[in-house]
Amino acid sequence: MKALKRWFLSRLFAWQRRTRLVNQLTLVVTALAIVVTMLISTVLFTIQYRYLHDAQRHDLETQARILASNSTAAMAFGDADAAREMLEALRASPDVIGAQLRLGDGTVLAHYLSPQHTEAEHAAPPLSVRAEVREGEAVFGELVIASSYGTANRRLALSGVMIAVLLIGAPLLLRGLFVGLLGPMTRPIDYIVETMKRVAREGDYSLRTNIRAANETGEVSAAFDAMLDQIQRRDEKLAQELIERRKAEARLDHLARHDSLTNLPNRVAFNEAMRARPAATLAVLMLDMDRFKAVNDTHGHNTGDAVLQGAARSLAESMPTHARLFRMGGDEFAVVLDHAKPGTAMALAERLLAVLARPQRIGGQTVAITGSAGIALYPQHAGEPAALLRLADTALYDAKNRGRNLASVYDPVMGEASDQRRALEQDLRQAVGNHELFLVYQPQLDLKTGRITGAEALVRWKHPQRGMVSPGEFVPLAEETGLIQALGDWVLHQACADGAQLMRAGWKAPFRLSVNLSPLQLKDPGLAERVGALLAETGFPGDRLELEITESAAIEDPDGAAERMRALTRHDVSFAMDDFGVGATSLSYLKKLPLSLVKIDRSFVRDLPDDTDDAAITTAIIRMAHELHKPVLAEGVETPEQLAFLRERGCDFAQGYFISRGVAPLEAALKTKT
Amino acid sequence: MRTLLLVVPLALAAGGAQAAHGARPDHEVKAAFLYNALQFTEWPDGTIRGEALNLCVAGDDAVARELPKLANKKAGTRAIRVLVTPTARDTCHVAYLVDPKRPFTAANASGMLTVASTAGEPRDLGTALVLGSKSGRVVFAVHLGIARDQGLKLSAKLLKLASTVRPP
Fold first, then answer.
1. Rg of chain A's alpha carbons, rounded to an integer?
2. Where is A468: in which H helix or E strand?
3. Which residues contact A305 (CB under 8 A, 6 or more apart)?
4. Any chain A CB within 8 A of the CB of B24?
5. ipTM
6. C-beta atoms of A73 and B3 within 8 A
7. Which residues of chain B have pLDDT under 50?
8. What backbone torsions phi and psi does residue B107 show, to the nearest 5 degrees?
9. Is the pTM of the predicted complex or chain greater than 0.90?
10. Backbone phi, then psi, for A183, in 5-degree steps?
């Protein structure tokens, strides 16, 4: 039973879901109409039945009373003929089956039988009435009339037909009326639905239903229009947001692919250009400014940036068609030249180098800088364009090695040199652990006393396969790769250890050990702490340690450098300014720094005393340093003339081959005694 | 419920009435006729005072001897009082005259239904109602002129049954 109910309900709901509301309503109304009509018909029919039957009975009773009244005399006088004659009047009533006039003693005075009726009806008539036959108080007998409900039933049949017509006609009429009335009622709803469908189909949120009605239809229309308004506004807002987001994305995309300083496409863009299907032949030019670091060091980063921007502008202006300029980072630029031949690539490189070499005026200063270029070609040099960058880089390195302000086209031989460099870098990383590095000490002569008062620690590398490797080769390599930090630490530690060992061996003479401090080491905030720990560990006294710093290291962050140097002076460590003169350092810097020695660069000493410029510079440096109460040491003294000149100009110390080459620690110590 | 009662009577219809009449002697039937006739007669207003309807019997015959049996029977709302030897002072509403030729006087000059009987077919005996017989059956006749003179109204139902009607 329950399952049945559930099944029925599920079918009903399914039907409701797939049937249009109008049809559902019409069906419900029709069904209701049928039910109501049937109910009314049944009631009406019952009432009619009762009424008609009662009416016929009543008529018959009336007829019986009249007949009985007319029959009184016949009954009173027992006149059967007269009585029969009376009953014959019933012949006019076709429904009457029969009648009897009975006297008071029960005897039948007269009777009547309708010939139209059957025996069965005679035997069991559906209706019978009786009436007393009396005159005043005297009762003579009774009249009994039997009848069928013929008339009533005929009328009922007519009513039945009418009811049947009503039963069929009323629902049909109602349905017609309903559909007719509902049509105008549901038309606005159909219109709304149609509009909704259009909105969904065409995505046109500017459509409106605009049904002005003071009923639910109007409300639905208004609500729907309001919703559309909102959607339209939101849609417009969304579109606006989308545009802005696309703009932002484009900006981000531009930022990701462009260099903020020069606004040139960057390395990312370059890589994409290389990955994208490029021209059948192309060249990659790598451009690099020579000694750009020096510009930064001397003029500061702002100037350096201005130089880069100027260079970028000039290069961009010089780009031919089919060429694209990228800034790869730092002072490196790349040019991608489509449809390139070796000749055209080289011509472009030379033209660009000429552009780069043009002096720039920046903030009242004139900065002259040159560049180098490396060229690699596709498909001559590589199977795929993406490999060109590395090859161009190799060619660039070659150009630098050949003397700068040059362009080199890639040659596979260069690749070998590059490979060797990488191998050397690998070996250098392991050199410390493998005990391939060692220190020599170049004694320093006090020109006033003629005594050796100190020595500079110099690092040497004995490569297991290659033999002695020049510091001029591996120190720049260490600086480029960041290995200089570890190398510098090792040198410092080894120098202190050597010095401490000599002192333990009984070496008492006053002296200083000079150790080169790389710019990276000077930048280290923990430098003082580490040097302190080193001194404590090795037992080497701080007052015998002199750290040599370069101009560039000091200039980059003069205040920070001065602070860290002062921290070290608490360990009694002293400082020397190395290679003084090459960086064109203003002497005012010297005042800021806690320096105890200024070392004149060997390049000024080399041509002494004949080169008047160098002589003048050297003399000036010595005088200025002395005015600041700083002693001066000349490096690279190789001849007695040089030594004599320097001594004459008041130079305090000298160092060089003429005095001694770099020697083992013990040997250096022994020289202090002479 | 009344329906079934009819089944048998309708089937036995024939002959019942004749049997009922044939069994009774004429004088009884005539007395009954007289009595029945009272039911269909209207007396003039004010002729009957009191409760009783006076039936005066003048003379003696078989019918006259039957009439006292009607005493206290009702005619309409009134009870019948039979006066066998009426005097002239008596009020007679109905008078059965054995010999209609003999003068009969009552206290009332009108409002008297006079009845006479004869062995044969009814004929004018000078009374309003004449009882007789025909073909072995009791019949009666009405003299409308006499009835009217007496201020009596005879029911049309009665007149319809009267075998002889003497026009006035």
1. 64
2. strand A467-469
3. A261
4. no
5. 0.79
6. no
7. 1-21, 168
8. -65, -30
9. no
10. -50, -60
